[in-house]
């Protein structure tokens, strides 16, 4: 009976915790997808797989997996350079690498990276997230590289502080409605365009091996024609609202842009449909590409940068106020969720004309299963490079998160190889459906523990809630302003930067700070992989220098006494044995030598043996030797305390 009550108590705790984690994960899944340049559905699918599948297999039962801010930079680069259809392959390959690493028991090795490099990597990612999402927060587009995004932030601020428009309620209502509807049309046109692109190898005259039978695309041509026809009909229906808006704002430049863009979008939609009906697929593909850009122009003419910025600032302010002043009983509700709900309510009540989340009613419309044609013509060299980077960064972040989870609770310890294997399975599945890559995420994991999660059921249930919500209530997600999700990520990026980490690293010396700064700078001005490699190379160089550098300063008494002091600084290893021996030879035979270890980082057996042998010989004469073992022990204890502080700090950063 007691065991039954205990099991029911644990089940209830896990059920409550799963709801809290679901509320934390929902806005993060969407925001990270937008920051990655991927469909919102791709982030939600990853959250579902991370909860249900990886939660069932995980080696760290209380860790919660899903899309992570730390991977947005890599994913965005993959999508921009190779296309969304190649993301699935890169994620799949990364998952295979993780599975192999788990089977080979390499889990602990992914943790063998200098904290300065890890913190520099996270800070670099944080800078890139802040720089790119600051533009999205004002309903603008990122400008390209991290350096360009940072450099153009003043321009974004200038846009957000433009003179506000005091449009009548009816004008705002129509513009807001058009933004919702045009955003959905944009999503549909992108989807149709990507599906049509799968037919490109089937076009007459396409360059393809004649002895290979190509796999039929997932969507047939009649289906594409039907979908384009539906888009034309919806676009035609919008023209009445555009005409009404023109009458209400007659003569304004914005109104003229909206009419011109709407007319062009309808014209391109009809021409693309005609191309499909006449089997002129190349022309249809080109027209759809142009129509996507025209629809983006139409969205740009409908939205307001300053209103989007206002909603973004409200979101950040709400997060800060909720975290700082909400009653403890209510803090179980995640601050980001409160902020997103508040921004959504304000946007709905005041009919704010800003961009909104684009998501299909049926989540699985966004699934992109790689076919044999994609496999055959994929840029494998670039994919392999991207997959290795994804695997290394995702694994390091996951296992660091697992270490932090172990320190937060007294339950079972992490089985690192099993966790790595589970993450690999999850990423293989995400790759097969074209979703975002996943890692263990400290924000969700800590929420799970703080909410009372006891077993892996809480992570599994959170995935179930995500699946049920997006399957039944997807229409609610389309009410969320994109700017509020971007603002949430701006705050997340700021937390990743964590300026306090530099202060902590300074306690280990300026060398660690230099490694951190070099990693951050390289990431911002080049790319993530280069930054990590630079950091690792500098760490290796510092390690070699540390274990090969020794300062030995001998001070002899000048007042005729026999006292002498030998101060050792650095590392006393066999490499520096000749130098230490040469200094000892300078000690007078009758001197009382005091060896100061207070600035010594390390001493190996060879140097200790040299000192012991020298002491025996020296003490056989008239001299004496005193070694300050206490200072060496206190040095070791201080380093141990610093390491503990470093671990606690890393928990908060990751």
Automatic annotation (TrEMBL):
It is a multi-pass membrane protein. It comes from the Bacteria. The chain crosses the membrane at residues 41-62, 83-104, 116-138, 307-325, 337-357, 386-405, 425-443, 464-494, 514-538. Its main location: membrane. Pfam families: STAS_2, Sulfate_transp. Residues 566-627 form the MlaB-like STAS domain. It is found in: Membrane. Keywords: Membrane, Transmembrane, Transmembrane helix. Residues 11-159, 287-519 form the SLC26A/SulP transporter domain. GO terms for biological process: transmembrane transport. GO terms for cellular component: membrane. This is C4-dicarboxylic acid transporter DauA. It comes from Bythopirellula polymerisocia. The lineage of its organism: Bacteria, Pseudomonadati, Planctomycetota, Planctomycetia, Pirellulales.
């Amino acid at each position: 009976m007691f065991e039954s009550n205990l099991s029911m108590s644990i089940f209830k705790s896990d059920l409550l915790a799963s709801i809290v984690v679901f509320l934390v994960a929902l806005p993060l899944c969407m925001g990270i997808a937008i920051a990655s340049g991927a469909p919102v559905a791709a982030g939600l699918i990853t959250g579902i797989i991370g909860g249900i599948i990886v939660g069932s297999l995980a080696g760290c039962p209380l860790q919660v997996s899903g899309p992570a801010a730390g991977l947005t930079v890599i994913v965005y680069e993959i999508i921009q350079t190779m296309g969304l259809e190649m993301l699935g392959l890169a994620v799949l390959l990364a998952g295979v690498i993780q599975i192999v690493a788990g089977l080979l028991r390499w889990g602990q090795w992914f943790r063998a990276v200098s904290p300065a490099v890890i913190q520099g990597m996270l800070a670099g990612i944080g800078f890139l997230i802040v720089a790119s999402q600051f533009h999205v927060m004002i309903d603008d587009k990122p400008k390209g590289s991290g350096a360009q995004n940072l450099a153009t932030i003043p321009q974004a601020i200038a846009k957000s502080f433009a003179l506000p428009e005091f449009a009548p309620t009816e004008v705002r209502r129509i513009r807001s409605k058009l933004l919702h509807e045009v955003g959905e049309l944009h999503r549909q046109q992108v989807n149709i365009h990507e599906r049509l692109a799968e037919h490109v190898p089937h076009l007459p005259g396409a360059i393809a091996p004649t002895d290979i039978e190509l796999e039929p695309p997932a969507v047939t041509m009649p289906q594409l024609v039907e979908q384009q026809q539906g888009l034309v009909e919806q676009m035609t229906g919008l023209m009445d609202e555009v005409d009404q808006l023109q009458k209400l704002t007659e003569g304004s430049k914005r109104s003229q842009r909206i009419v011109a863009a709407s007319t062009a979008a309808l014209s391109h939609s009809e021409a693309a449909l005609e191309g499909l009906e006449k089997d002129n697929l190349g022309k249809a593909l080109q027209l759809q590409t142009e129509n996507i850009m025209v629809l983006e122009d139409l969205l740009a003419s409908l939205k307001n940068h300053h209103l989007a910025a206002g909603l973004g600032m409200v979101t950040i302010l709400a997060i800060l106020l909720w975290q700082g002043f909400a009653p403890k009983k209510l803090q179980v509700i995640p601050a980001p969720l409160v902020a997103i709900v508040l921004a959504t309510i304000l946007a709905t009540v005041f009919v704010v004309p800003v961009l909104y989340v684009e998501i299909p009613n049926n989540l699985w419309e966004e699934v992109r299963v790689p076919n044999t044609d994609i496999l055959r013509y994929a840029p494998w060299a670039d994919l392999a490079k991207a997959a290795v980077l994804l695997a290394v960064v995702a694994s390091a972040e996951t296992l660091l998160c697992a270490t932090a989870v172990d320190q937060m609770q007294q339950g079972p310890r992490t089985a690192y190889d099993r966790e790595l294997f589970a993450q690999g399975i999850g990423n293989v599945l995400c790759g097969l459906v074209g979703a975002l890559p996943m890692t263990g995420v400290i924000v969700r994991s800590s929420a799970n523990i703080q909410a009372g999660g006891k077993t892996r059921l809480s992570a599994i249930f959170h995935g179930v809630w995500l699946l049920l919500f997006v399957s039944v209530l997807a229409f609610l997600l389309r009410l969320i302003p994109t700017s509020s999700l971007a603002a949430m990520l701006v705050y997340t990026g700021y937390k990743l930067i964590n300026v306090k980490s530099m202060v902590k690293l300074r306690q280990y010396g300026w060398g660690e700070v230099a490694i951190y700064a070099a990693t951050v700078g390289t990431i911002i001005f080049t790319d993530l992989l280069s930054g990590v490699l630079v950091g690792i190379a500098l760490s290796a160089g510092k390690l070699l220098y540390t274990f090969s550098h020794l300062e030995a300063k001998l001070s002899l008494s000048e007042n005729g006494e026999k006292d002498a002091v030998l101060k050792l600084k650095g590392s006393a290893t066999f490499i520096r044995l000749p130098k230490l021996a040469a200094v000892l030879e300078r000690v007078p035979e009758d001197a009382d030598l005091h060896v100061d270890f207070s600035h010594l980082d390390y001493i190996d057996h060879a140097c200790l043996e040299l000192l012991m042998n020298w002491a025996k010989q020296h003490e056989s004469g008239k001299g004496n030797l005193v070694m300050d073992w206490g200072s060496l022990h206190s040095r070791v204890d201080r380093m141990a305390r610093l390491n503990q502080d470093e671990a606690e700090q890393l928990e908060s950063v990751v």
